[in-house]
Write a structure and sequence with these properties.
This protein has four helices and eight strands. It has helices at about 20-30, 45-50, 100-115, 130-140; strands spanning about 5, 10-15, 60-65, 65-75, 85-95, 120-130, 145-155, 155-165.
Length: about 180
């Protein structure tokens, strides 16, 4: 898929050169919030490994005036083979670009790319409370499934994680194998 955007923000496939920017956007989510259950900021090498992990899944960045201002990605939902038609997704936006449509732009492209690969369902886990993330996911067609209560402990308190799902297509009787992502731009 080619680059697309709104205003001065465009979305494209993430590259290794974007890893420092991705890390700088993600770092405060790890260190200062409960949005991520990671307890330390991953090194650049680890983020690069995640971007290239098999099966290869979309990693996208939003760029404004040459600066990466957000990213979204899909990942394997679970390791057991019967789950292979389901994926999980996440989106992170730099503080000064939140609530300006960047998440919507990233997810519009990500959802399309994941669907084009042959996946059937897309899931999102959201640490609660997080009204902005819930609002984005529901605006993008995700439906609330339920809540895992007190599933994680971070920043001095127990946290719930809500789960949302978006159907990507009608259920095929016999699904074709999902394809690996091949970044085009």
């Amino acid at each position: 898929m080619a680059e697309e955007g709104v205003g001065s923000v465009t979305v494209r496939a993430a590259t290794a050169a974007d890893v420092p920017s991705i890390r700088s956007i993600y770092a405060p989510m790890v260190t200062d919030t409960f949005a991520s259950f990671e307890e330390s900021v991953p090194a650049e090498a680890e983020l690069t490994r995640r971007i290239l992990a098999r099966p290869r899944m979309p990693w996208l960045v939003a760029v404004d005036a040459g600066t990466v201002v957000g990213y979204a990605y899909a990942s394997q939902h679970r390791r057991r083979p019967a789950y292979r038609w389901s994926a999980e997704c996440s989106v992170y936006i730099s503080g000064d670009h939140r609530r300006h449509g960047v998440g919507h732009l990233l997810y519009k492209r990500l959802i399309g790319e994941v669907a084009d690969l042959g996946y059937v369902s897309l899931f999102a886990g959201i640490t609660l409370p997080n009204a902005a993330s819930v609002g984005l996911h529901e605006a993008m067609g995700f439906e609330r499934l339920g809540v895992f209560r007190n599933v994680g402990y971070k920043n001095g308190s127990w946290r719930d994680v809500g789960w949302w799902q978006r159907a990507l297509r009608d259920l095929p009787v016999t699904p074709d194998e999902p394809r690996e992502w091949s970044p085009k731009s």
